[in-house]
Amino acid sequence: MFIPENKLAVPSFKPEKKEEPALAASAVRIQQGGLTCSVPVKPGSTLLDAALANGCDMKYKCRKGTCGQCAVDVVAGAEFLSARNTAEQKKLGSSAKRLACQSVMSQVK
Ligand code: FES
């Protein structure tokens, strides 16, 4: 049986395009008691909101910077956090901890 060349269905075997693995996103690594979380940087979000949205089951209560329940140790990525505000200075004194509800995330410029 003759099939004209322009009628042949020739399957295309293009190599499967592999996705490049995404570069590691910027993140802030925090510890609160025995809990350790890596929180992707979400500019404009508080560290608390970003942590909770990322499944970090951390303690918090007031969200106003007064109870101190959200205090965390920042293990890595402190450069993505705002400077301490008055509430943090008042609550934490000279401690190196941060209040997750008061720390606002941003990209490093
Ligand atoms: S939740 Fe109370 S100080 Fe952050």
From TrEMBL:
Segments passing through the bilayer: none
Lineage: superkingdom: Bacteria
InterPro entries linked: 2Fe-2S_ferredoxin-like_sf (IPR036010), 2Fe-2S_ferredoxin-type (IPR001041), 2Fe2S_fd_BS (IPR006058), Beta-grasp_dom_sf (IPR012675)
SUPFAM superfamilies, alphabetized: 2Fe-2S ferredoxin-like
Coiled-coil ranges from the UniProt annotation: none
Record Pfam families: Fer2 (PF00111)
GO MF entries: 2 iron, 2 sulfur cluster binding
Domain 2Fe-2S ferredoxin-type, residue spans: 26-109
Protein name: 2Fe-2S iron-sulfur cluster binding domain-containing protein
UniProt source species: Domibacillus enclensis
